[in-house]
Design a protein that fits this description.
The structure is a single chain. By secondary structure, the protein is mainly β. It has one domain (5-71). It has one helix and six strands. The strands form two sheets. A four-stranded antiparallel beta sheet has the order 3-4-5-6, with helices on one face. It has a two-stranded antiparallel ribbon with strand order 1-2. A hairpin with a 3-residue loop joins strand 1 and strand 2. The protein is globular.
Length: 72
């Protein structure tokens, strides 16, 4: 864990950081033990929208909607 987020690593998913609102929502689902599992890619942001993929779905943040979960 770091001041603004954390890095998570597994042999299956590699190393990926979780940050901010996406990390907070992921925490609310139980982190890696929850339905989303581990992150599988980096957080990417463009046009006021940030997304991050996880083993069990995707978290998407916008300033209008906050963070939304889309499960696989």
């Amino acid at each position: 864990n770091y001041q603004r987020g954390a890095i998570h690593w597994t042999t299956a998913t590699g190393a990926h950081a979780t940050l901010g609102a996406i990390r907070s929502t992921w925490a609310g689902t139980g982190y890696e033990r929850g339905r989303l599992g581990y992150p599988t890619g980096p957080e990417t942001c463009a046009n006021n929208r940030c997304t991050q993929t996880f083993q069990g779905g995707t978290l998407t943040w916008t300033p209008t909607t906050g963070t939304r979960i889309t499960y696989k």
